[in-house]
Amino acid sequence: MLQALYVDFNSYFASVEQQLCPELRGKPIGVLPVMAETTCCIAASYEAKAFGIKTGTMVRDARKLCKDIVFVEARPSLYVEFHHKLIEIVESCTHVESVRSIDEMVCKLTGSQQMKENALKLAAKIKSEISKQYPYIRCSIGIAPNTFLSKVASNMQKPDGCVVIEQHEIPEKLFTLKPRDLTGIGRQMEARLARYNITTMQALYAANKNQLRTAWSSVEGERMYDKLRGIEPYYVKNARSSLGHSHVLPPEQRTIEGAKAVLHRLLQKAAMRMRSYELLTAHISVKIKLRHAETKEITRFYNESDISATDNTLKLTNALESLLDGLPRPMKKLEPIAVGVNFTALSNLEEVAYDLFAEKPSANEKRLNKVLDMLNLKYGKNTVYLGGAHAALKNAPMRIAFNHVPDLVVEED
Hints:
- The chain has a five-stranded mixed sheet with strand order 5-6-1-7-8.
- It contains 14 helices and twelve strands.
- The protein has helices at residues 12-20, 46-49, 59-65, 76-91, 116-133, 147-154, 187-195, 201-206, 209-216, 220-227, 256-276, 313-324, 363-379, 408-411; strands spanning 4-9, 29-32, 43-44, 70-73, 98-101, 104-108, 139-144, 162-164, 242-248, 279-291, 298-310, 335-348.
- It folds into three domains: 12-75, MutS, DNA mismatch repair protein, domain I (3-Layer(aba) Sandwich); 172-236, Orthogonal Bundle (DNA polymerase, domain 1), CATH 1.10.150; 242-411, 2-Layer Sandwich (Dna Ligase, domain 1), CATH 3.30.1490.
């Protein structure tokens, strides 16, 4: 029985740009995080994909593949606005069960919708309603007995496709795919499966639960066994496990001082976002990607530390500075090209267990952070900030992660 309908918007960022800008329609488009020759595409239009350009293609390589490619700088806030508008359109046709990312959502099929003919009519209606308002934004739809296979089906025909996988077509309809085509099997997992002689979909499907649990080294292997058979696995809903921001540095900030300023800006944004979720962190990490000027070789700096659970920007800033003190002297001579800061060991305010000898946050400290957030929300995100971020106020704009749709009220600059 058909249970899930998956909507996957095609080349989403590039499609929004083409919808908004008539001069970009029908042209190969590369969307960049910053307008710089040393960065890479975070999205490509289908006209660009025809030349072999995809997410992760460096600008210089994209120019070699397609001399007429047009680059545009990403506009995350617009993509979020369109995301919500598109949800409304799908909701006008059927209920959106869950949002999987900024360009993906899944709808649960009920009643007569579970019949193939009616499910296809629903898919056609969704496509038609989207096309009426946004003709340059297309989607691929997958319909299947569970969410996982509906996602698989949505990827089988792009762009603007619609694929149904019925229970009686499992597993044969999957045998045209490779294990790497499945969500959850990346390069490392593919290599691990190969060590167990699982290199084809036929072999993956033939493996039993114990074999897959061993290959995955976790219960996720057993879940894969069920998902491939159209069963919806049970998941315990966990609290958010991590929170952070990363950023590709623009050319003018590719110095150690510039990288530190951007890190401070990212940390202050992440701390405000964390407080909006009413969470505390007990672990902070920082990463810097650096490049050798002559050899172009990439070096990475990473440092992390446990801290007493907090949401206080000043304390987090002190922790960040301590981590940055660990940057080796030779690395300070390299060119930083990307940075990131991340909070883990998150807990709710009412659940936190403070260290025995740690100083607990005072009422004044809590009020101060609350007032700072209120001022920035009311008058603009840069109204009040700590000095470490002063040189990067405009260099760490909102970004969209795969599994996180930003809250424009809290996160937009």
